Amino acid sequence: MKLSEKKRLQIVTAAESLFASQGVEATSMDQVSSLAEVSKRTVYNHFATKAELFQAVLEAMFAKVDQGKQFQFTSDCSIESQLMEIAAQEVELLTSPAFLKIAKVAFMQMLQDANLANSLNGQSVGCLRFFEQFLSDAVKAEVLTVDDVSLAAKQFVYQLKSLLFYPLLYGISSKDETQC
User: Fold this and answer.
1) 97, exposed or middle or buried, with CB in 10 Å at 0-12, 13-18, 19+?
2) pLDDT by residue (tens digit) across 69-95?
3) Domains identified in the chain and CATH numbers
4) Which pLDDT tens digit goes with each residue over 129-153?
5) In Å, what is the CA distance from 152 to each residue of 30, 34, 110, 142, 147?
């Protein structure tokens, strides 16, 4: 790894730690440079703005998250067992420390920046990467009857989020208490 790449990684790692502990708005570029053990000039050579640094931090954090495999509907297994397997994988994602850390950092910033909320809302994460196609294939195979596949996919994930993810994110419960 080149020295420049190493310094960039140090900056992103330091910013991730600071953003998670005190939020993006409360974190200064001076704090990032100090924790990363690089000059402020080096930070700005890599990231012209804190917004650019924040984007790099989110990308680095998402790269660490295991989103699991993408399922394809098959008529060889019951729809119930396939949906349970997808749900179990989604629960693993939603309750993972890495995903919860991303959510904490992103949620705090979304309250400050509506554009971020819009850009993150357009991303497909976890089973939403494939679930609409899965449901469409199950409907075509006449195993499910679904009028609005997009809505059904979101409802599936949102139910898991409301029962498991949000209580963990907000500190209302622990992972042990949320397991089904």
Assistant:
1) exposed
2) 999 999 999 999 999 999 999 999 999
3) 3-62 (1.10.10.60), 65-178 (1.10.357)
4) 999 999 999 999 999 999 999 999 9
5) 46, 47, 25, 16, 8
